[in-house]
Amino acid sequence: MTFELLASDFYQYESELTQREKSALTDIRAYLDSDVRPIVNGCWERAEFPFEIVKPLANLGVYSFAWPETAPFENSAVFRGFVAMELARVDPSVATFVGVQNGLAMGAISATGSKEQREEWLPRLASGELIGAFALTEPLSGSDSARGLRTIATRDGDSWVLNGSKRWIGNATFSDITVVWAKDAADGRVLGFIVPTDTPGYTATKIEGKISLRSVQNADITLENVVVPESLRLQEANSFRDTAKVLKHTRAEVSWAAVGTAVGAYEAAVAYAKERVQFGKEIGGHQLVQDLLVKSLGNITASIGMVVRVSQMLDEGTQLDEHSALAKAYTTARMRETVAWCRELFGGNGISLDYDVARFFADAEAVYSYEGTREMNTLIVGRAITGQAAFV
């Protein structure tokens, strides 16, 4: 199958990928277009997750690329970013599922697990045998997780007892394991635990009534005297700084997903502009419609340039928290602007799922907020600029 550059990648950043990366991206794109795109509007409307895609995505290596234990071939962070973008341009809910599986759950184990833990859990997650979730956010602490964590881990011999609650945890209604973050009752350190979801005292309840990422199965989690052996404590997670190592990487991936969300809306708008006839011609021939499209493409192009560089810095070992934070803050703001322009182009049809753009417009709101709000990421960058922390 021949690799084709996306028209929405206006400056052709994809052309810099290796041939092996282009081949893998082509296969992923073909599967998403043939098997995923036709079902996502129905899943979104019913608030259902398409479980039939889990194994095919695993077979394509989508969960595997980032980790030495599972990568099918040597690849770059830029390539992995384009995979995230590709997922989101078809469906941000699918991109979010994958981001939780391979970015947060596998990322936490890779960054803070022991060698034995990495070797045991990463291949099983990469193959789709197991589904993972990542539980940091709580009902009373989101942006202030570093200081406001209320879930407590109490040492009891060779085990730990977890008590607390978590909220907005993606994949958690059907995950096999959940990485749970809790404060050590003895000294307040933030620790991570691999918790099998069939452990007594662990309960996940689906959050209903969402208007965004409806196919993502978010859950409220309660932990009542959940006993976890020391062998399932992430051995290299000893403070919130270790948790932040995971978030630094996933913020960059979310930035790519934000670009993909904007691209999905933009591509729907371009297609509509070429088929919708008003005032005697296709609306793509009207100046104000072209203005909306050009502004959207400008946002997308600037955002791709930013996330490509941030991913290159990850490969080079020079990416810092503030680099991924700026990318997340900027690209999600431009995404929000872009999906609004694209929805505007459709007029009244823009609120119908039949034209796809409504789904991207709604889903952008969740992508804008998760993995750190714009305000919190702004403060991370502001601290880097001024040397002063403005957090409260």
UniProtKB/TrEMBL annotation:
Residue ranges of domain Acyl-CoA dehydrogenase/oxidase N-terminal in the record: 21-129
Keyword Oxidoreductase: yes
Residue stretches making up the Acyl-CoA oxidase/dehydrogenase middle domain: 133-226
GO terms for MF: acyl-CoA dehydrogenase activity; flavin adenine dinucleotide binding
Signal peptide coordinates: none
One Pfam family per UniProt: Acyl-CoA_dh_N
Keyword Protein biosynthesis recorded: no
Biological process, per Gene Ontology: fatty acid beta-oxidation
Domain Acyl-CoA dehydrogenase/oxidase C-terminal as annotated: residue spans: 243-385
Name listed for the protein in its UniProt record: Acyl-CoA dehydrogenase
PROSITE patterns documented for this protein: ACYL_COA_DH_2
Family indicated by similarity: Belongs to the acyl-CoA dehydrogenase family.
Cofactor: FAD
Domain of life the protein comes from: Bacteria
Entry keywords, A to Z: FAD, Flavoprotein, Oxidoreductase
Transmembrane stretches, start-end: none
